[in-house]
Design a protein that fits this description.
four-stranded antiparallel β-sheet; Rossmann fold; 37% helix; binds adenosine-5'-triphosphate; alpha/beta
């Protein structure tokens, strides 16, 4: 059974249809990249999966349970953590306080939360060095580490990352790729929503490509990269991936 199974998802914003019969799955411990241009519907998929946008039809199964109309807090508690786009840190709070907020739904004892924070610091040593620094004074790359770290505080089995590379310099994107690979190596599956094709190709086991709310391509990363349609979508007529 897949960890996440999205079946026939349809969604609207007001009267406007945005997703039409979107189907894909994520297995335990794998990275699946959801690709697509501006307005393709990627963020709407992420929000529907994490309970923040109510789909008009279809189902979202997670860890064997139907979570389609679940409260988002219950979804987090069940092991699905969503890191939205836009690197929304609490700027006046410290790195440590921002991380601790990631466990606000966690009823476990304080020392368990503190241990979890130390795990996050092991994944992101730069955050450990800056634990007392206000989040608003971090660089863009460090803020991205912080929001991912905050998402890890709930100890998820699936992390949904919405465009983590947006606005980052190439060196920070390379560091981000290593961090995401380390998160997967530690056993957390990742649904990586991206426009950065090279990052997705480097990290993902499988790719799902959305266009105008439809899945137009999906399969193993090698198979999708070899498909001439992906080159046309991203680069016009030539496909530099082949
Ligand atoms: N709150 C909203 N109200 C009305 N329309 C919306 C709303 N949010 C998104 N849309 C529309 O839904 C469509 C899909 O948007 P969505 O943000 O899911 O796409 P996306 O693939 O994540 O795009 P981007 O990469 O530009 O963030 C777009 O046409 C967008 O204008």
């Amino acid at each position: 059974m897949a960890l996440l199974d999205v079946r026939g998802l349809c969604a609207r914003h007001g009267a406007v249809p945005v997703l039409d019969d979107v189907c894909f799955h994520v297995e335990r411990g794998e990275i699946v990249a959801l690709l697509g241009g501006n307005g393709a519907g990627k963020t709407t998929v992420a929000r529907a999966v994490s309970g923040l946008h109510r789909p008009s039809s279809g189902e979202v199964m997670f860890d064997g349970r139907d979570i389609t109309r679940c409260d988002p807090r219950r979804i987090v508690q069940g092991g699905l953590s969503h890191v939205p786009d836009g690197r929304r840190v609490f700027p006046s709070l410290t790195v440590e306080e921002n991380l601790t907020l990631g466990a606000y739904l966690d009823s476990r004892r304080k020392n368990v939360v503190a241990e979890r924070r130390e795990d996050v610091y092991r994944t992101f040593p730069r955050l450990a060095e800056r634990r007392a620094q206000r989040a608003g004074s971090l660089s863009g790359g460090e803020q991205q580490m912080l929001v991912i770290g905050r998402g890890l505080m709930s100890d998820p089995s699936l992390l949904v990352l919405d465009e983590p590379s947006a606005g980052l310099a190439p060196a920070s994107i390379a560091a981000l790729a290593e961090d995401i690979a380390a998160i997967r190596a530690a056993g957390t599956a990742v649904l990586l929503i991206e426009q950065h094709l090279q990052l997705a190709l480097r990290l993902a086991d499988r790719l799902v490509v959305l266009q105008e709310g439809h899945v137009v391509l999906s399969g193993s990363t090698a198979a999708v990269a070899a498909d001439p349609r992906i080159g046309r979508m991203y680069f016009g007529d030539g496909n530099p991936l082949q």
